[in-house]
Queue: 2 jobs
Job 1
Amino acid sequence: MIDPLSANPEVRRDQEAVFARLAAENPGRLVLHRARSLPLLDEIGAFDAILIDGDHNWYTVIEELRAVERMARRHGIVPFIAIDDIGWPHGRRDCYFAPETIPPAFLHPHRRGCLIPGQPGISESGPFGNFSHAEHEGGPRNGVRTAVEDFLRETTLDLVCRQVPLRSGTAVLIPRDDGPSGAAIRHWLDAWQFGETQMAALWEASAEHIALINMIGPLTSEVAALRRQVAADATPRP
Ligand SMILES: C[S@@+](CC[C@H](N)C(=O)[O-])C[C@H]1O[C@@H](n2cnc3c(N)ncnc32)[C@H](O)[C@@H]1O
């Protein structure tokens, strides 16, 4: 697992707790590289599978995929590649955990603010307010899905791309011809192949779903804090 962990101590504590739990559940099988994916992906050797779910912007994702291709060439392995967040909100809009790590030519004008499905700008209220996003959704070199599409146009690996429109959306890239070993995953992915109209409806529903669950979390914490406050105010003082 490669993750630099958050600079925010509260978030970092939660991330460390998740890692500690996973390490305890998988003794000896988990290593946390406390670093950014770039350039580490070029240094960690061969791997059979990778889930890309880090900094959700065009530059980082396409460079991660290019590093995976270099690994594939060096070691003669075409790994199973999954890329998370190809749907709303970051499929067509960059998000930046650390804008200073993105070369200026690839950094869109960005700021912290909230995102609403169907609104290409940034909103003052709504979900995702804790992150820095590109001010406009869409256009070239913007977002995770755009990075996957651009990579597929340039790669010389013979890959098939399948999209799973669940939650924030996942793309899976598998070798076109991986023989019987890939049959099970191919069978599962084939179940997600729908017509264009049905896919569009599923993407829309998953955007609404993600927006709602990302609003309910913070609202629930706010309501709990207000309840505590009301209870404290109502407690008679000695
Ligand atoms: C959306 S979370 C996903 C975490 C994990 N995959 C999960 O599902 O719980 C994104 C993670 O990417 C990490 N991250 C941010 N920038 C990164 C980078 N350049 N390389 C690797 N990880 C990064 C963040 O610290 C955060 O933990």
Job 2
Amino acid sequence: MAIVPNDITDVIEADRKNVWHHLIQHKPFETIDPRVMIEGKGMRVWDATGKEHIDAVSGGVWTVNVGYGRERIANAVRDQLLQMPYFAGSAGSIPGAKFAEQLIEKMPGLTRVYYTNSGSEANEKAFKMVRQIAHKKYGGKKYKILYRERDYHGTTITTLSAGGQPERGAQYGPYTPGFVQVPHCLEYRAQVETENYGEWAANQIEEVILREGPDTVGALCLEPVTAGGGVIEPPEGYWERVGEICKKYDVLLHIDEVVCGVGRTGTWFGYQHYGIKPDFVTMAKGVASGYAAIACMVTTDEVFEMFKDADDPLSYFRDISTFGGCTAGPAAAIENMAIIEEEGLLDNTTAMGARLIDNLNGLMEKHRVIGDVRGKGLFCGAELVADRQTKEAVDEKKVQAVVGDCMAQGVIIGATNRSLPGLNNTLCFSPALISTADDIDEITAAVDKALTKVFS
Ligand SMILES: Cc1ncc(COP(=O)(O)O)c(C=O)c1O
């Protein structure tokens, strides 16, 4: 049992009075207490009431990959902060250099790490490089960036301009010009009936490139497995075609690994399941499991070399992120990576991910409200439908009722939230990579009970 302060009424009052929480309607907090998390250990977290939960969403948003209470990460961060906490990213640091080297070892074909403030910003760095490359090589013309329906790349106005989730973007326009949407690739909600849906969906990207003009399209930005848009692994044949299309039209491939990166799907990076060769890879959340903030954009020598004309005062990447110079992030990331290696967490993710999918498939046999189960590694979803034939989504309130019932049982699960109008109906599961078989069974047993309660 975790130690909970005897009286945290003051904390809750201060929170209620002065904190504006992320992605949540605050009206209910006029009558109920906001949730305040106090302590975490392994897979478990305790809130301000002292209630214990198993965390099936790694800190809510796919982040605490190695679980809570890792002393070696805390010690490494502490030591590093005392030695050298910060210097602007125009200079290097010991953990920054070491982590970059270790990361690059896991990413054949890529050579350069650019540290940023957040996942959104890591994506914007790639967007800025694409724009600058357009100026360097194509007279400014190849500036357009394609993104996919249902994908999410961040919270800034420009990453929302590249966002395929209308409810996240609504009312925040006007958006940054030059971003063009391509269709989603969720076979369960296929736009057409065809034998090879993966290839069909990828071919839609080619259609968009041809419509826009290949000489205007600089890059394609995709999540390897779409996260908040519904846990979507592209169908077979998709990535092969995407690779061919990018090559054919000289379009740079930007893979957003902010969720999948550093183990979540059972490989170091999601794209590594599919044999693709990205030009940019962005990452954040799980890089240091949330013990310290760290995000980065990784690219190739080919891209890097384009920014080295010493005679041109504008040729280099004229960009800075203040907190990209914080050393706590890479210090924590080095330990995080060592833990994943030493404890065999990639293999565990594959094995426990298979168990999670099996359990969810078992629930699908029992509960007609589950229309589809999908995922990769410890990154799974179950889509809830009112009718399996029509695939009509269940009322969002019922999805939230399932999440709420699990929470009451002491199991924190997630659901797609304010992403797509009428389609925020997928339960999301992303427990830490340290999950055991008992943890997985405990999580799905709670879902079983919740589904029975909400839908019978
Ligand atoms: C796929 C993806 N990309 C980018 C981001 C943005 O990352 P951050 O919140 O660190 O800016 C997120 C956040 O949820 C994400 O899921």
